Amino acid sequence: MNSAGGRSQEAAGPKNRRAPRPPEQDRDVKLSKALSYALRHGALKLGLPMGADGFVPLHGLLQLPQFRSFSIEDVQRVVDANEKQRFTLRPGDPSTGLLIRANQGHSLQVPDLELMPLETLQALPQVLVHGTFWKHWPSILLKGLSCQGRTHIHLASGLPGDPGVISGMRPNCEVAVFINGPLALADGISFFRSANGVILTPGDADGFLLPKYFKEALQLRPARKPLSLAGEKDAECLSGPHSPRRRMIKQ
């Protein structure tokens, strides 16, 4: 016979489970991820002709094995519904038909991506922030932000949920690093704005934004609080929710 406590746990159990996504949502997530890889990183390996502006013919893309179960309507729906506006669809000429591209995030060289240069203090957003995770924070604090195989470091003009911020930072980021844009600009670091509002920078000649350009840092999870920018592995650097130090304190 089940106890009242057991019945209570059984009743509470389903509330703690994440509701399964509808099948069509799973298909859209799968399609979005496949598009991101093909248009940002894999076009050449996949044999897709990519223009200098990053566009590829949609018809050719849909002929690839991983896309054959999807239609033009599926792609249009994913492009329209994507909150971060990662992709752009546009008409091509009669020989190509519809064209599609990723708006940013490429590891491929895309020289004519239609990025808007931000060359003055007036053009540069007042807030420039990069979102990251605890596991990367010690390395970032020591070496700076890196392109990590992409052509640009991604920045947002605010934190997730701020007005006008639709992309540039994952909503589950744990650490926010605020950049001193005027100092970096004065040192010759270039900044651009992508079609979906992400602020991009190639960093220095080695693809880094050095720690000297960090203005402040903020822990986002589990609660927001300032972080030290000291170069040593201080207590703040070890204050992540899964750090050995935190586990030791809890014991």
Description:
It is a single chain. This protein is of the alpha+beta class. The protein has two domains: 24-102, RNA 2'-phosphotransferase, Tpt1/KptA family, N-terminal domain (Arc Repressor Mutant, subunit A, Orthogonal Bundle); 115-227, ADP-ribosylation fold, CATH 3.20.170.30. Helix content is 25%, strand content 17%. The chain has a four-stranded antiparallel β-sheet, with no helix packed on it. Strands 5-8-12-13 form a four-stranded antiparallel β-sheet, with no helix packed on it. A three-stranded antiparallel β-sheet has the order 1-3-2. Residues 1-16, 232-239 and 241-251 have low confidence and may be disordered. GO terms for molecular function: tRNA 2'-phosphotransferase activity. Belongs to the KptA/TPT1 family. Residues 1-28, 232-251 are annotated as: Disordered. This is 2'-phosphotransferase. One of its GO terms (biological process) is tRNA splicing, via endonucleolytic cleavage and ligation.
Short description:
With 251 residues, this protein is α+β, with helices and mostly antiparallel strands. The chain has seven helices and 13 strands.
Element-by-element helix/strand order: HHEHHEEEEHEEEHEEEEEH
Span between N and C termini? 36 Å
Low-confidence stretches: 1-16, 232-239, 241-251
Fold-level CATH name of the largest domain: ADP-ribosylation fold
**Rg, nearest Å:** 22 Å
Helix content: 25-40%
